[in-house]
## 1
Amino acid sequence: MIEPLHSLDDLVPGQAWDLGTLALGREEVLAFASRYDPQYFHLDAEAARESLFGELVASGLHTLSAVFGHVIRSGLITGISIGGNRIDSQWPAPLRPDEEIAVRAEVAEIRPSRSGRRLGVAKMRYTARRVADGVVVLDAVVTHFLRR
Amino acid sequence: MIEPLHSLDDLVPGQAWDLGTLALGREEVLAFASRYDPQYFHLDAEAARESLFGELVASGLHTLSAVFGHVIRSGLITGISIGGNRIDSQWPAPLRPDEEIAVRAEVAEIRPSRSGRRLGVAKMRYTARRVADGVVVLDAVVTHFLRR
């Protein structure tokens, strides 16, 4: 169980949490890609053999969204999150359907509001690694607005 | 109709295309948020009144994914896109369900492979503006690998 954060002021740069694992099933990979990223290497296993990836892989937007949903459901920041306005996301390696990935959250930067308001900005880095080989498939820095 | 690109070498920095409009219906906003961004201001119209947004708004990940899907379906880069590995996305203003947004694509940067390989990197900037008031709700720079 993750202990939920109660304030932006609870956060310290470098602090990190392992948030457990998840996998994206083939059905969900295909459904997401059909709607949001209809490229052949996300939709058609046969055609994907001729792609750069050599096989069907999840849309990076799907990996990002699923990891973000996992983070929110972990409860870590849910009680103090009031929004966000930026994500810088990289996908160093592809993710195949049904591959288990481990999610980690780390505090990258904290900026309390100078005006004494009851909120501030936290940059959180979310990474996902394939459990089988440790390869990073997602490295995303999210700018959150959090309560103090 | 958009003329599909045939090669990375067709692209010139600053070149831009208007790719039409889209809207995210309330059902889809709720469905996406349930799975990928279950925060109350994306899920519960009543509770969202007390949020920073003052009303229910779409998840930024949903706006990004829907605009990306729209770009792919436009056919602009679909014939030459072989993957991508980075997105830097900002959401300067929120998007409400059923609000029409206009999507624009612009060539931000081109880096043909120096090794003479048949691919290169293109950074494309995708923006979405609310049609009603011109406010930008998404400003995303996507790093694509494109065929030459």
Note: Helices of chain B lie at 26-36, 40-43, 45-48, 60-74.
## 2
Amino acid sequence: MAAPFSFSERGATQAVEEGRTLSPKFDADGLVTCVATDAASGDVLMVAHMNAEALARTIETGEAWYYSRSRRALWRKGESSGHVQRVTEMRIDCDQDAVWIKVEQAGAGACHTGRRSCFYRAVPLGKAPDASLVLELREAERKFDPAKVYGKGD
Amino acid sequence: MAAPFSFSERGATQAVEEGRTLSPKFDADGLVTCVATDAASGDVLMVAHMNAEALARTIETGEAWYYSRSRRALWRKGESSGHVQRVTEMRIDCDQDAVWIKVEQAGAGACHTGRRSCFYRAVPLGKAPDASLVLELREAERKFDPAKVYGKGD
């Protein structure tokens, strides 16, 4: 398993944006944002965070590891549910504070609520938001029963 | 234009995850994460942030507004470049701290470096990251000259 690894120190903007060295910009909490999309459909499955260790383990193993802000713990996706994510490609953005992974999602879904994607509600557009705004369901049927799948959340 | 609007106060987890009221979870800086994907290709174009006003304006106008953390300012995407993003769909995630927008990207690209997407470099997988790691270019050719397009950045 990935040993603790110090990613490269960040150089000037030009080096970060145009260089070919991985030098992530971790925020004050030591995290980068990670977007996971379905390698087949392109849908966004979830947005989560990685600390340096989660990022290193994901790179080494080719399976998604995250850092749970609520549990304050390293988190192998699918650890309790079996719904692991095999990473087919990882990309880093221009200023290296966000990661995009394309994944093959094992099992019924990525979301702890039982849906395939965490993004199962749409926001209607074209009108200033007010108290009448009602979210619209999108592929919101449950694919699995979270109470049966999760021991301690995932 | 959207007047200052107070999004709903957040209720219990059940209401936030299963309800149809938009009650975003802004972080300590007053921001939610926003992922913009290309409505045609599904590619992730950029990851940015929205404060309450940017979110409200995006909902009202159907064009992407963000909040620039570096400039500490509300930011209409394409304001200086003309590379506006027309939002074809907005979704919110289970705990309502991340937004996914599908956009029609005007102009040559979304990235301030001149690429179509901010994610123009891939991280090789399958080996623990070390000093030998070299990012691989992906659709990294410049689509426009940022020096000519941007007055003050975008």
Note: The CA atoms of residues 5 and 56 of chain A lie 7 Å apart.
